[in-house]
Each structure stands twice: as C-alpha cells, then as structure tokens.
C-alpha cells in the first residue's frame, strides 16, 4: 500500500513527511521506523495491517485513569518505532520488524472489538503513529460504529498528520520521557520540542494523560520534574501525570528506581498538577480524589477498580464535578 505524507526527492529517493525525522529514503531503503519503504520511488507500507499484538486490557493498563475507568478495551500493537529507547519494555516489537505478525483488516479489527464487548480500540504496545494510515482507517470505522479510539504513543509526529488523527481520537496517553533535549537526542533519537508541540496541539481536544518513566540518574532530579509539571500545568493543571518506576529492560541495566524517589517526585509534581499517579511500584492503591473535599472518587488497587465517590459525574460528597470521562 502507498503511504501518505511523503514527497519525491532526487535520484529516486523519497522524503517522508510523517514525523520530524524527515527521513530521506533511497531506493530500496527504509526510514528510521523501519516500516516505511522506498520501492521504485514510491513510499510504501509493507507492514500495513500487520499486527504483532492483540489483547483485551483494562483501560488502566494504558495507563488512562480518567477515561472510562474499570472498562476493558481491545488493544493492538504493530512493529517498528520512530525512537530507539534503550529501556523499551516492548523492544521485541518496537526494534525488530522480523517478529511474527498477523494480518488483520480494519474491518476485522472493529468487528473483533464488538465481539469482545470492548468500548473501543487502543493503538498501543509499539509506536502506532508510524502506521498512521492503518490507524486512521481503523479510527474512522470504529467511530462510525460508536467505538472510542485511544492512542498510546511517543507523540512524535508532524502537525498536519497529528491534526488528521486528533480529529478521530477520544483519548491518549503520551510519553514525556524527559525534559532534557539532550536526553531525547542522545538516548532515544527524538526531539523534546516536537513532543511538547504535540501535547500542546492535543490539549483540550481529547482526554489527555501523560506518562514519565522515572530512571535513576537520567531524569529523576526534582528540577526536571518541576519543569515537566510546570509545562503540563500551563497546558491544563487537570492533565493526569503518571510517574512510573523504571525496571531494567533491553539495554539498560541500571538498578530499579526506588519507590521513595518516585514518591518524592510526585510531591514535586503535585505543586503544579491536580492528579499525579504512581506506577510500577507493586500492589498499592492509586486513587482519584475530589480536588475540593478529598473524598475518594475512584479507588484502584492494581486493575481492580471501584467508584465509591461518584454520582452522576460529580463527587457524591460535595457535588464538585469529577474529572472522569465515561461514567
């Protein structure tokens, strides 16, 4: 299938315009994502419709805490990625296009979501944005059938394709991996400013949540966390921030992030943001409380979810509107 967002360059090469990498791809070559290929001067998609992962997950696993809590969602993954994170927990599919895949048309995918009783489809696991054409087609079909569309992504995409996708999305969790431009460039091969731009473009249009993986000695300083939280608060102080504890993965052998570090950074972030959640710290409650009276609105322990403090979208105790969508 022919790709979108590219132009003819010189000597048979093509220039991909999907993401800020702007890869110049020679004949027979591929972009950094490995899934967009120059065949005879045309940018094509040899992995279009090839899914590496299909599962029904709790929406909290994305993680999304303010969007249809307690519900399950059909979740699908692909191969390839625009980043090279050396700590990626899904590196077997993000950094390798040779893994087994299954061809699933967008019509079959939507039918599968309906058969599973899912309220929507989550595009996740590896980087879905490098498969934008498939995601857009699936989103259109899903929306026509009354299903919700959820993106879990690094947020590294150019403004025009982002605009096309945002018009079809209902929610997203975007990784904000650091607030250090050098970390983005040297460690993962990306650009912080482009991710910030996507977050700015998405605010107020979809249910937007953000995740930062806290890595010892890399992004665990209080000054950096303050910068992350201040940036998000300037967009909207009600954006939920998930601080996830790092554990050794892929090429990183650093020791796991101490729980005390994550808790300390959460306190820094809460000076700016109303909702800060901790993850990857074992079985503990991660609740949403009313910002006025502190009553528990949504109680979470792992993926066990209850909503003791919600009534008609408001706090049952004081009547303040709840920040929760889909209850």
What does this molecule look like?
This protein is of the alpha/beta class and 327 residues long. The protein has three domains: 6-44, no CATH class; 50-282, Alpha-Beta Barrel (TIM Barrel); 286-327, no CATH class. The protein contains eight helices and 20 strands. The strands form six sheets. It has an eight-stranded mixed beta sheet with strand order 7-8-10-11-12-13-14-15. It has a three-stranded antiparallel beta sheet with strand order 1-2-3, with no helix packed on it. Strands 16-17-18 form a three-stranded antiparallel beta sheet, with no helix packed on it. Helix 2 (106-115) packs across helix 3 (132-144) and helix 4 (159-166) packs parallel to helix 6 (192-202). The radius of gyration is 20 Å and the shape is globular.
Unreliable stretches covering 5 or more consecutive residues: none
Instruction: Specify the oligomeric state.
Output: single chain
Order of helices and strands: EEEEEEEEHEHEHEHEHHEHEHEEEEEE
User: Total helix count?
Assistant: 8
Terminal Cα separation, in Å?
40 Å
Q: Widest sheet: strand order? A: 7-8-10-11-12-13-14-15
Question: What top-tier CATH class of the largest domain fits best?
Answer: Alpha Beta
Give me the CATH superfamily of the largest domain: Aldolase class I
Q: Nearest-angstrom radius of gyration?
A: 20 Å
Percent in helix: 10-25%
Provide the residue-averaged pLDDT. Answer: 97
